[in-house]
């Protein structure tokens, strides 16, 4: 039985990825970007400080960092709380020792629960990004635009009440709906960390102006490698530094690249991992071809 020819018709078929958020092109055909600083690599460290409710609805799925066992999952709830009260301050100290800047993506729900954390981040000169309302407030296509707009508005209001006006956004579980980019720029966000389509920031088209998508590599995330894949800490450090060294070899042909990776306080902030984290940060800080900054600063550098 043969298929009807119309089966292969796809009304949204287009060049590249069948969408019009950005102009698709092979990296080899793109004009190289050279940063004013002369750096070959822009290292973007994102520290995800998220609040995960103990009784998540898990709709439409459970956040990978959320609760695991049936309610009340005190073991995982308290380990996440440990990260935001104890582990993250070890990460802050390690960054301070290395002289590096990072982006700390905070759930809005933490601003009242852990205001000293936000103050410590700001006092050390790091960028604060919005990580949505909390870990169980997921953005997905099952929401109406008004429902998703309300989630973003509640997040904005919480940050404004705390005297913080972030321009960078990290969705809970890095999950979006088709409307999320439009709703983010409508709310005043200009940077997003959910996409990883390239090694440089990509300007996404939205109905309210451009939105710079900076590549945050899921494959280098501490939770992914150390918890899910059960790699040892030395391998994790080696992988990130090898990625840095390899990207440098592409500089002559492709120009500067962004090396973005995520740290999770209840993972990287454990006492038995701090030595590995310090080695990783030292490997970045000691390389004169590497420039480490927050997401907003990096995006601005690539836009020039």
Describe the structure.
The chain has 304 residues and is of the alpha/beta class. It has a single domain, classed as TIM Barrel (Alpha-Beta Barrel), CATH 3.20.20. 38% of the residues lie in helices and 12% in strands. It contains 11 helices and 9 strands. The chain has helices spanning 74-98, 110-113, 115-123, 145-161, 180-186, 222-228, 233-249, 251-254, 265-268, 274-285, 295-303; strands at 41-49, 103-106, 127-130, 168-169, 191-192, 202-204, 211-213, 257-263, 290-292. The strands form 2 sheets. Strands 1, 2, 3, 8 and 9 form a 5-stranded parallel beta sheet that branches. A hairpin with a 6-residue loop joins strand 6 and strand 7. Helix 1 runs parallel beside helix 10 and helix 7 packs parallel to helix 10. The radius of gyration is 20 Å and the shape is globular. The protein starts with 40 loop residues before the first strand and ends with a helix. The model has no long low-confidence stretch (mean pLDDT 95).
Per DSSP, what share of the residues sits in E-state strands of 2 or more residues? 5-15%
**Major pleated sheet:** 5 strands, parallel
CATH fold-level assignment: TIM Barrel
Output the CATH homologous superfamily. Answer: Glycoside hydrolase/deacetylase
> End-to-end span in angstroms?
57 Å
Q: Which H/E pattern describes the elements?
A: EHEHHEHEHEEEHHHEHHEH
Q: What top-tier CATH class fits best?
A: Alpha Beta
The number of E-state strands comes to: 9
Structural class: alpha/beta
* Average pLDDT reading: 95
Rg, nearest Å: 20 Å
How much helix, percentage-wise, in residues? 25-40%
Categorize the overall geometry: globular
How many helices? The count is 11
Ranges with pLDDT <50 over ≥5 residues?
none
What is the CATH architecture descriptor? Alpha-Beta Barrel
């Amino acid at each position: 039985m043969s298929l009807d020819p119309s089966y292969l018709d796809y009304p949204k078929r287009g060049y590249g990825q069948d969408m019009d958020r950005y102009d698709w092109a092979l990296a080899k055909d793109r004009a190289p970007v050279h940063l004013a600083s002369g750096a070959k690599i822009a290292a973007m460290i994102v520290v995800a400080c998220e609040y995960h409710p103990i009784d998540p609805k898990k709709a439409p799925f459970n956040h990978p960092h959320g609760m695991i066992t049936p309610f009340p999952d005190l073991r995982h709830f308290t380990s996440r709380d440990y990260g935001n009260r104890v582990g993250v301050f070890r990460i802050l100290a390690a960054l301070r020792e290395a002289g590096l800047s990072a982006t700390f993506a905070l759930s809005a729900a933490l601003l009242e629960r852990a205001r000293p954390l936000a103050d410590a981040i700001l006092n050390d000169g790091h960028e604060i990004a919005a990580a949505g309302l909390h870990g169980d407030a997921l953005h997905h296509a099952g929401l109406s635009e008004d429902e998703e707009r309300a989630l973003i508005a509640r997040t904005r209001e919480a940050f404004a009440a705390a005297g913080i006006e972030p321009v960078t956004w990290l969705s809970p579980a890095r999950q979006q709906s088709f409307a999320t980019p439009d709703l983010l720029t409508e709310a005043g966000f200009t940077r997003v960390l959910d996409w990883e389509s390239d090694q440089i920031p990509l300007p996404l088209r939205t109905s309210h102006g451009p939105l710079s998508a900076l590549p945050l590599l899921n494959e280098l995330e501490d939770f992914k490698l150390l918890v899910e894949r059960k790699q040892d800490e030395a391998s994790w450090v080696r992988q990130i530094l090898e990625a840095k060294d390899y990207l440098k070899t592409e500089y002559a042909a492709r120009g500067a690249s962004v090396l973005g990776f995520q740290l999770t306080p209840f993972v990287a902030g454990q006492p038995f991992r701090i030595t590995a984290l310090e080695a990783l940060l030292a490997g970045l800080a000691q390389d004169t071809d590497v420039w480490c900054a927050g997401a907003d600063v990096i995006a601005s550098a690539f836009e020039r």
